[in-house]
Amino acid sequence: xxxxxxxxxxxxxxxxxxxxCSGGDYCGELKTFAESTKDLDIKNxxxxxxxxxxxxxxxxxxxxxxxxxxxxxxxxxxxxKDADGDTGKLTELAKSDGEKIAPAFEAISKQAKDTCKVxxxx
Length: 122
Fold this sequence. Notes:
This protein is about 70% helix and about 0% strand. By secondary structure, the protein is an all-alpha fold. The longest helix has 30 residues, at about 85-115. The chain is globular and about 35 Å long.
């Protein structure tokens, strides 16, 4: 479950450059987001809410080629927050959205590491 939460938290994207950003300090915001995903417990609605808030911030300054990936991560995190720690609902979410969240998180994580030198825990 924790890995699924981290996947949702983060938001995985394809390799992009900062010149493609729409504004803001993407790498700086990404560092804050990465901190919010450390040891994230998907069953803790408050922790998920904090991660969701950071994801929304960083998505605004994300490179254009990562915007769709961030949307997937944010949508997943919103659903996880709505589950309010219910293991059954979280399991269903992982089943229904797992195939979308994994590649999105992978892309975001790769770009974060390659471009911003930020590691996002999975």
